Amino acid sequence: MAAPSDTPRDRLRLAALPTGGPTRFDLAPDAAARAALAERLDLIRLPKLRFTGALHPEGGGGWRLEAELGATVVQPCAVTLEPVTTRIDASVSRRYLAELEEPEAGSETEMPEDETLEPLPEIIDLAEVMAEALSLELPDYPRADSAAFEGRRAAPPGAAPMTDEETKPFAGLASLRDKLAGKE
Predict the structure, then answer these.
(1) Where is this region: Disordered (predicted)?
(2) Model-wide pTM > 0.85
(3) What percent of the chain is helix, strand and coil (3-state, nearest 5)?
(4) Which of the residues 91, 132, 134, 183 has the least number of beta carbons within 10 Å of its own beta carbon?
(5) Half-sphere exposure (CA, 13 Å, Cβ side) for 126?
(6) CA 176, CA 159: separation in Å to the nearest integer?
(7) Any idea what DSSP says for residue 16?
(8) Domain extents for the chain?
(9) What is the pLDDT of residues 51-80, one digit of tens each?
(10) Helix (H, G, I), strand (E, B) or coil at 133
(11) Cα gap 179→14, rounded to integer Å
């Protein structure tokens, strides 16, 4: 991988990259970096993490990042808080365009149809792209195989809790229709 001497290997200064072909990268953070990222993303552990791919020059001074993210994450179960291990394998794609402007802070902006588009930075921080991609792929509510959530029922003192059927507004109408149909 061609990396300028004034930036770390995971931060690529676009002006210094060759434009004749792709610039390949392969990030495999060490245990300390994985532990720091696990803490940042509220994970129990992050035993494996790898981010490999290439930056491809595009017309108009733009760049396209195509990569594969592989990770093993351990999160707390949403029901029991037991550790839940998940394997993540995902494709990551970003397009950095010179003519795309960064939205102003506090202003309302419409999201582009293509969510891979980003303004062209001076430096692409591959570790940050990897962290963002991982955070987007994490299960929102991981569940242990043994987790069972049967719901909760609550009612004021002296009242019976409502059943699921009673909360459906048309259930009563259906039974009324059936009664009326039988009487006719």
Answers:
(1) 147-173
(2) no
(3) 25, 30, 45
(4) 183
(5) 29
(6) 24
(7) G
(8) 11-102+110-137
(9) 999 999 988 888 999 999 999 999 999 888
(10) helix
(11) 74
